[in-house]
Design a protein that fits this description.
homodimer; mainly alpha; DNA-binding
DNA sequence: TCCAAACCCTTGGATGTCCTAGTATATTGC
DNA sequence: GCAATATACTAGGACATCCAAGGGTTTGGA
């Protein structure tokens, strides 16, 4: 997107909020906006690393999830729940992964409503390679200090729990 | 998307990473994944609040930016830089806002390449109302503690600066 | 037993984001 | 002064996300 700005646009927004008398919510506004922007940056990095593998983040997440499934297969609704995305998003991702022969659909043995998705051999291999690349080029160079990582995991974990993502812990 | 999961899927992923011998990057992976998911939750909240106004977050951000512009108008490329999105995304947002009579395009007085965007009276009014709603229903109830907000602003600010978003500060 | 309610997946539509390319206007350098 | 380069916006296409709605399957209560 281009050249660095001379000043932090989010800090500017925070100052604008304060100037307009919304000082009580200026800081949370800045924090939330920063999260939105950080996600955008991280997503761009991830997509850049995955592109050579012909994967997007959404498809990679599904491959990775399947690669960790004990049985090697998951019902679509289970995948939707674990990835915390809309069922139609999973349908979309599976359509494309299936076309690329990385996963396969199969009927559930006892429940006629359910469709199972399973990694193909190619899918499993590609998942391994893509994970190695992400580990080396993104997660291993996040730019966050160890203490900050711990803090983020804790604070955002609490947030996600309070938002209803999960119960325990 | 539904019922809370019994366990945190991101904590599970972190355990899977450790189990596979990627313990050195498991924590950053979890932190990054948590940022992605938190963004999704926050975006959903924001869109819910904006929906009654007929706005999306992308369009709201543009309205808000214009409402703070001293001159009351901004070149599209300036808006693109400040919002940190691709120029075509701004074109898209302006198209829809213009159709809704919330902003207007006008030619730049001296540079024939440039298009200025300006709030209409309706646009200015709607921006005010939408901001009040977001302040009350999202930013004012972020769920983050004051200390966590400060920490997020600082950590993510450093991250964004290192990522090339801006220079100073 | 049987029908209504619940559940699962897919299709179609609306939005947003990015990339690539194309057109028009400015600026720069020879 | 003019050609080459740079900049600004837009058009078209690929993807992802969500919502609404539809068709098939299961479950549960009358």
């Amino acid at each position: 997107m281009g050249t660095p700005l001379p000043r932090d646009p989010i800090a500017d927004a925070q100052r604008n909020w304060e100037r307009h008398g919304w000082g009580d919510v200026a800081a949370p506004m800045a924090a939330i906006t920063a999260i939105m922007r950080t996600q955008q940056i991280l997503l761009a990095r991830i997509e850049t690393v995955l592109k050579p593998f012909g994967l997007t983040f959404a498809r990679y997440e599904l491959l990775a999830l399947l690669s960790f499934a004990r049985s090697g297969a998951l019902p679509m609704n289970k995948a939707s729940a674990l990835l915390q995305v809309h069922p139609t998003s999973v349908t979309n991702a599976v359509d494309r992964l299936e076309k690329a022969a990385l996963v396969a659909r199969s009927p559930h043995p006892t429940d006629g409503r359910t469709t199972l998705i399973e990694l193909t051999a190619e899918g499993r291999t590609l998942a391994k390679k893509a994970t190695a690349a992400l580990n080396a080029e993104v997660f291993g160079q996040s730019g966050f200090g160890d203490d900050d990582v711990d803090h983020l995991i804790r604070v955002l974990g609490t947030f996600r729990r309070d938002a209803g993502d999960f119960t325990e812990e």
